[in-house]
Amino acid sequence: MKDKIFSWIDASAPLAVELETELCKRPAISPESGGEGELAKCEFLETWLKDRGITSLERHDAPDSRAKGGIRPNLIATIHAADKGASNTDRGCLWIMSHLDVVPPGEASLWQGDPWTLRQEERGTRADGSSTGARIIGRGVEDNQQGLVSSVLAVLALINNGIKPARTVKLLFAADEENGSAYGIGWLIGNRPELFSKNDMTLIPDGGDSRGESIEIAEKNLVWAKFSTHGKQAHGSTPDLGANAFLAGSELAWRLHEGLSAAFGDHDSLFDPDYSTFQPTKKETNVPNINTIPGEDIFYMDMRILPRYPVNEVLKEVDRIKGEVEVKHRVKIDYSFNQRMESKPTAADAPFIKMLSKTVAEVYGVKPKPVGIGGGTVGAYLRNEGIDSAVWCRIDDTAHQPNEYALIENILGDAKVMALLMLEN
Predict the structure, then answer these.
(1) I want to staple 73 with a disulfide (CB 3.0 to 4.6 A). Which of 42, 125, 329, 389 is the partner?
(2) Per-residue pLDDT tens over the stretch 227-277
(3) Which residues in 390-421 are b (16+ Cβ under 10 Å) and which e?
(4) Per the residue annotation, which of 177, 178, 342, 388 is the catalytic one?
């Protein structure tokens, strides 16, 4: 059975390039980034899948008046298990979740060709100078069309060999991953909770390394905070008549960095770096001239917090430090969140992680290892619902870069991993 599946996948490189080519030529950029959304890409994919025998399809469209058609589409393809009684409420489904949206191409002069016209090279070179096999180049070909195409090939390999999966498989092609998932997985969990079960398991092929060794099972809690300091504007020669918002904000930024790092200073080897980080980042313009004491000042912080620390616990310390700075500088400080996400980890010894590790080792001959990351992924939404989830694929990690590429061997290899997962009990 495995040999038949692998042979079919090995022969499917032209099909992979065909699908990547068609997806690439349909930009699916979010309205936040000046695009129309994912509708054209989703409608093409829906037709393409039906024409090739994947016919159990359903759409769950999140309303968004800014997007083409007024919606952000989420498409689900279902492949039923040999025992249809093995539903998502008892044994659980295997979900493979990729996303339809892509980021804009950025500076056009940095691309060697049209970002929306796929180019194929028989042999390429990585940034470190090492040689690759055949690769395809274009915006979105890796992020996240590699994972999307691999999942489709895995399902087609089973269908074309008359093989049923061990449990029901659901391919989710989601909207809005690049801008927070409010119209994608976040919307589905909030508005279509009946789709999911705590017995489910989810593979998200949207992050990894060039050998396929890293299985992401946890991520740091993420807080992006905006701090606004309100003081009193005055002439630079008479600072005592004012309350310097810039000075107060600067002290707050420093004290938050130092104080939070000390108060929440544990280490966890699952992550790199293995500690929580509290970094002042963006700074907004205050006064336009040098000789004015600013009465208003705004800065931002990026906090990546080990999962063992609840965000509310961190914010209590933020409030304590903030209060001391307010009294010292005679200012008022408030803060809001650009993003706030807490994520429960998936256990390293969870059955799904063991299954995935086994299949990755079988296909790629590596020893997979569970890792945690500092960045936020859609896995957080699912883990917070009690669904075991892993972010994994084998990639060179060229996402969001000019001349983004995907290796054909990675698309086919990942499809083999996914197909084996579908056969696991």
Answers:
(1) 42
(2) 999 999 999 999 999 999 999 999 999 999 999 999 999 999 999 999 999
(3) bbbbbbbebbebbbbbbbbebbbbbbbbbbbb
(4) 177
